[in-house]
UniProtKB/TrEMBL annotation:
Gene Ontology terms for molecular function: ATP binding; ATP hydrolysis activity; branched-chain amino acid transmembrane transporter activity
Name of the molecule in the record: Branched-chain amino acid transport system ATP-binding protein
Annotated ABC transporter domain residues: 3-235
Highest taxon above the source species: Bacteria
Signal sequence, renumbered to the chain: none
Keywords: Amino-acid transport, ATP-binding, Nucleotide-binding, Transport
Gene3D superfamilies membership: P-loop containing nucleotide triphosphate hydrolases (3.40.50.300)
Coiled-coil residue spans: none
CDD domains: ABC_TM1139_LivF_branched
GO terms for biological process, alphabetical: L-amino acid transport
Keyword DNA-binding set for record: no
Family as reported in the entry's similarity comment: Belongs to the ABC transporter superfamily.
Length: 236
C-alpha cells in the first residue's frame, strides 16, 4: 500500500476529532473520503500532510513511518495537498503560485516540464499566467490550487473539497481532470461533500461519521448502498 493509517487519533485540545481511524490507499487508486460537515475529513487530510499532530496510531507512506515527520519533509517524500478553501497567494501571479508548489525541486528543466503539464491540464491558467491569483474566479483558483499541488510531482495528491463553491459545469470539469491526473500516474485521496461525483470516479471509498469510519467499499458499491444514498446522495 502507498498510504496506511492505522488506528489514528487526532485531538483539538480535549476534543478528539478522529477516534482511531484506519484506511489504506493503494498505488494508482482514486480513494474518496465522504461524510457530513464536521465528520473529520479535513482533519484526516491534515494528519496525513503533517499539519495536525497524531495523538495515537501510525501513518505509513511508501513503506516509511511518517507519523512524526515534518510537513515539508512529507512533500519531499511525495505527499502534496490542495487544501480546502484553495489557499492560493492572491498577490502573486498564476505562474508564481505554480512555482511556489515546486519549492522543494532543484532541476529547473523538470520544473518547466511540470509548468507545461499544469498549463496542458488547465489551459485557462495559461491564459491567466501573468494575472494575480486573487483576480481569478473561484473555479480558476481551484484549478490553480490543484496545479500548484502537482508541481511537487507527488506520488499522492490530497484533494480537500475540490468542488466547493463551484458551478455544476465546473464541478464536472474538475472531476474529469482529477481522473486524468490519476490516469497519468498520480494516486489521489479525495475528500468531498459532493458524494455523487466522488463515488462515481473513486476506485474505493470510505464513509466518515463523527471521527469514525462507518463504511468502506468500492465507489460503485457505496453509490448504490441504500444508507449512503439516503444520507449523502439525496435519494431514498
Amino acid at each position: 500500500m502507498l498510504l496506511e493509517l492505522d488506528n489514528v487519533t487526532v485531538s483539538y485540545g480535549r476534543i478528539e476529532a478522529l477516534h482511531g481511524i484506519s484506511l489504506t490507499v493503494g498505488e494508482g487508486e482514486i480513494v474518496a473520503l465522504i461524510g457530513a460537515n464536521g465528520a473529520g475529513k479535513s482533519t484526516t487530510m491534515r494528519a496525513i500532510s503533517g499539519l495536525r499532530p497524531v495523538g495515537q496510531g501510525k501513518i505509513h507512506f511508501d513503506g516509511q513511518d511518517i507519523t512524526k515527520m515534518r510537513a515539508d519533509l512529507r512533500v519531499i517524500r511525495g505527499v502534496s495537498q490542495s487544501p480546502e478553501g484553495r489557499g492560493i497567494f492572491p498577490g502573486m501571479t498564476v505562474r508564481e503560485n505554480l512555482e511556489m508548489g515546486a519549492y522543494t525541486r532543484r532541476v529547473r528543466a523538470e520544473v518547466d516540464e511540470d509548468l507545461q503539464r499544469a498549463f496542458d491540464l488547465f489551459p485557462r491558467l495559461k491564459e491567466r499566467e501573468k494575472q494575480a491569483g486573487g483576480t481569478l474566479s473561484g473555479g480558476e483558483q481551484q484549478m490553480l490550487a490543484v496545479g500548484r499541488a502537482l508541481m511537487s510531482r507527488p506520488k499522492l495528491l490530497l484533494l480537500d473539497e475540490p468542488s466547493m463553491g463551484l458551478a455544476p459545469m465546473l464541478i464536472q470539469q474538475i472531476f474529469d481532470i482529477i481522473v486524468e491526473i490519476n490516469q497519468q500516474g498520480t494516486t489521489v485521496l479525495l475528500v468531498e461533500q459532493n458524494a455523487q461525483q466522488a463515488l462515481s470516479r473513486a476506485h474505493r471509498a470510505y464513509v466518515l461519521e463523527t471521527g469514525r469510519i462507518v463504511k468502506e467499499g468500492s465507489g460503485n458499491d457505496l453509490l448504490t448502498d441504500p444508507a449512503v444514498k439516503d444520507a449523502y446522495l439525496g435519494v431514498a
